[in-house]
Write a structure and sequence with these properties.
The protein has 263 residues and is mainly alpha-helical. It is 70% helix and 7% strand. A hairpin with a 5-residue loop joins strand 1 and strand 2.
């Protein structure tokens, strides 16, 4: 004997009020929808759409993360490049200042032979002005390049060391001016070549030669800047490399790794 559930339930609850009958009819309608499979199809369609939406959202998030990672890597690369440039410039300044500081012969008279308009040669003892001028101009160029590159990066300890170097220059500004070197815009040095060519060599020697000279002071500070920027570049590169895992996912935050594991 078969039992018609719909007719059975209809008879059982036929005595209810109209409101009760309406609520029960709704329940029975849901039951029939479940029984004939239409409710299941509706659920499948809903979750399929929701799953596609989730996948699309996850894909968009991954693409956005990849874009951010590329932008961050580019920014990190530029940051490291600035430190390396500062290191290179400071190393050049250290060399230029060291050449002036250590080359005692540069400020000593040497034999110079000149030829007059009649072709007669004359040998005299004089300073090699061309060599002195070249060495001083190389120093000034390296000094200005170092300031340029240091101003473009953000390390406070490097900035302080550069400020100390600028302070040492300011302390010698009067003597520098006597040989044709002045302090211009952004604390950079400017050279009056005509005045440099005729400058008193004793003053030049006091400024640039020996362990207690201005050049020696700048050499030490340039050496410090070169060492600092080299180390900062290495540390920055290491820390940025560790920021990403072996699959390329950003792992600074634990949630990033957990989230990536779902997809």
């Amino acid at each position: 004997m078969s039992l018609n559930l719909f007719n059975y339930n209809s008879s059982l609850f036929s005595g209810f009020s109209s409101n009760g009958s309406s609520g029960m009819s709704s329940m029975l309608g849901d039951y029939m929808a479940i029984r004939n499979g239409s409710y299941g199809k509706l659920l499948k369609a809903y979750y399929a759409e929701n799953d596609n939406s989730t996948k699309k959202t996850a894909g968009a998030i991954r693409r956005e993360n990849s874009k951010k990672q590329a932008q961050q890597a580019s920014a990190d690369s530029e940051e490291i490049k600035k430190y390396k440039t500062a290191q290179s410039d400071a190393s050049s300044l250290k060399t230029a200042a060291g050449d002036l500081r250590s080359n005692s012969k540069l400020f000593e008279k040497v034999e110079k032979t000149t030829t007059d308009e009649n072709g007669e040669e004359t040998t005299v003892m004089d300073y090699d002005r061309d060599a002195i001028n070249s060495a001083v101009k190389s120093f000034v160029k390296a000094y200005n390049s170092t300031l340029d590159s240091v101003y473009k990066q953000e390390s406070s300890i490097v900035q302080k060391k550069a400020a100390s170097m600028v302070s040492a220059t300011a302390s010698n500004k009067n003597m520098l001016a006597r040989v044709g070197i002045t302090i211009g815009k952004d604390n950079k040095l400017e050279v009056d070549e005509d005045k440099l060519k005729t400058a008193n060599v004793s003053t030049l020697k006091t400024l640039f030669h020996g362990s207690g000279s201005y050049a020696s002071n700048v050499e030490r500070k340039a050496s410090d800047i070169a060492t600092m920027t080299e180390q900062i570049a290495k540390n920055t590169k290491t820390s940025k490399t560790n920021t990403y895992n072996n699959t390329g996912n950003y792992s600074s935050f634990a949630t990033g790794g957990i989230y990536d594991g779902f997809f």
